[in-house]
What we know:
By secondary structure, this protein is of the alpha/beta class. The chain has a single domain (4-255), classed as NAD(P)-binding Rossmann-like Domain (Rossmann fold), CATH 3.40.50. It has 8 helices and 8 strands, in the order E-E-H-E-H-E-H-E-H-E-H-E-H-E-H-H. The chain has helices spanning 27-38, 51-63, 81-92, 115-143, 164-183, 216-227, 240-247, 252-255; strands spanning 4-6, 18-22, 43-48, 68-72, 97-100, 146-151, 189-196, 233-236. Helix 1 crosses helix 6, helix 3 packs across helix 4 and helix 4 (115-143) runs parallel beside helix 5 (164-183). It is globular and about 55 Å long. The termini are far apart.
Amino acid sequence: MNGRHVPPAGGLSRNGRRILLVGGSSEIGLSIVRRLADDGHGAVCLLGRDRERLDAAATRLAHGGEAVSVVLADADEPGSHERAVAEAFAVTGGFDVVIVAIGRLGAQAGLDADPAEAAEVMRVTFLGAGSLMLHCLRRLRDQGHGTLIVLSSVAGERPRAANAVYGAAKAGLDALAQGLGDAVAGTGVRVLVVRPGFVRTRMTAGLPAAPMSVAPEQVADATVKALGGRAHTVWVPGRLRFVFAVLRHLPRSIFRRLAL
């Protein structure tokens, strides 16, 4: 096993609620975990490929009173996903909330992007994230309860020319999540798709901030609030839903000329 367990500072976890973060060093994902912890959730498992970052995140969460486990898996190696997800579920005996927070931002030159970089963005953001999502959702269905949160992006709602590779990959992941959400309706499992706009994180550092940009904590607040309702999709900030209701239907001859 590749897993590692970090006990909470000062003793046992506060209660038996269990969270799996797939993409365990994601700033947005960790913000959601911390926000859930504020509501009394306890046991956490971080699944990802970077041992150093995972261990650092696990130590910070443990100091906050959470029982944290770490499982290694690379989104770009789908052959390892079934084993890694099985290991994560075995560590805690299942999860109440699974967060899929995987994406690779790159190939911003669009058609002129480096072909290898573009292929990696598509593999990790759609194939890798989608594969891990499928394995997690099957496990949740088998246990008969739980919520799968999928971090999508408004970039996938209507990909732009300059962001076509990442936007298309997120569009694929979003569509897969929505379809699988319908597939598990009535099983006790729920899929919640989160569509943030520009989020100020390590991944977007150096890029010009887009209008209505948000911090990871704002995405976390909106996500946890949505968990208390019946929504299957949440936009962050919420007004982006109305912006894209218009952009979605613009003729391409107009859309391609917009400075987005």
